[in-house]
Amino acid sequence: MPIKMPINVNSSINIRLKVFSVIFVMAVALAGCATTSRVERATNKDDPYENVNRAMYHFNDKLDDYLAAPVSKVYNKVTPQFARTGVFNFFSNLKNINVIVNDALQAKFMQGARDSGRFLLNSTLGLGGFVDVATDTGLDLNVEDFDQTLAVWGVPAGSYLVLPIIGPSTMRGIPGTAFDVAANPSTYLGMPIQLVSLLNTRATAEGSLKFIDEASLDPYVFTRESFLQWRNNLATDGKSESSMDFGDDLDELNSETKQSGAKSEPTHQDISKTKRKLELLAPQQ
Asked: Best-predicted range by mean pLDDT among 30-34, 198-202, 233-237?
């Protein structure tokens, strides 16, 4: 991603609105193309556009291999661990604004009060959020976003999509991400600051990304199933029984294994690690 000069708030808003407009149009266009063509490899009801999604997945993977990965490796070498942790804490604290807003939209008022306390504590005693002092007091980090809010309101997830650069999503996730980006204060800090956030997130996820490439039979299927189950688990606050039911997913993986002649299959521990990877790679909204 090319480095740009700092831009003002209005420019930042306009750029982001244009970006998400393009993404939405692309998603609709891809959906139209897929419905008019014969999708030979689609075997999952949540992923009717698998051929197109696989192509986009491989594009993102190559982009990561040739651009993001080399830069993040240099970043890891020149940046001390305490500094990377501080940067992560800072942007995570800003993201708490999103959490608090979505707490209110989901009528989670008690959780919203705790999340507000976490934000205020880290913003003051935590030196602007660079130090996470709230966790030590029992105010753990919650994950709430507008995609989850839409789920609570009864909006179905829709088809699974792999978007350029952004990665895994669903039809419901597109407007959800747009809302969260607009509600996040870090959106208005300027492009260089946002690039630091993205770079730090990518560097943090290095080990998990390496794991998914080496341990899974089909990285695309593994990532898709882990992402969908992770999002379903978040939307139901961990109450969905299907969020931990890997039977259908493993059956699909086993079927593909037999076709490819592979001798091993991913374990529950593998899928848990992949979910952690997806949490690390979630956009800093």
From this structure: 233-237
As given in the structure block, the two tokens for residue 115 are 């999340």
Distance CA 213, CA 217 (A): 9
Please tell me the predicted confidence (pLDDT) of residue 129. Answer: 95
- Reported as a pLDDT band with limits 50, 70 and 90, residue 87 is very high
* Measured distance CA(94)–CA(187) in Å, rounded: 10
Total count of residues recorded for the chain: 285
> Does residue 35 have a pLDDT over 90?
no
Measure the CA–CA gap between 153 and 42, rounded to whole angstroms.
Answer: 29
Which of helix, strand or coil describes residue 168?
A: strand
Ranges assigned E (strand) in 171-285:
none
- Model pTM score: 0.69
Q: Transcribe 15-68 into DSSP letters.
A: HHHHHHHHHHHHHHHHHHHHHHS--SS---TT-TTHHHHHHHHHHHHHHIIIII
Pairing assessment for the beta strands 160-163 and 167-170 based on DSSP bridges: antiparallel
- Rounded Cα distance between 74 and 62, Å, is 18
Task: State the average pLDDT over residues 72-87.
Answer: 92
Cβ atoms within 10 A of the Cβ of 199, count?
A: 20
- Encode burial over 224-246: b for 16+ CB neighbours within 10 A, e otherwise: bbbbbbbbebbbeeeeeeebeeb
Q: Which of 37, 39, 57 is nearest to 48 (CA)?
A: 39
Give the span between the Cα atoms of 173 and 154, in whole angstroms: 13
pLDDT at 43: 59
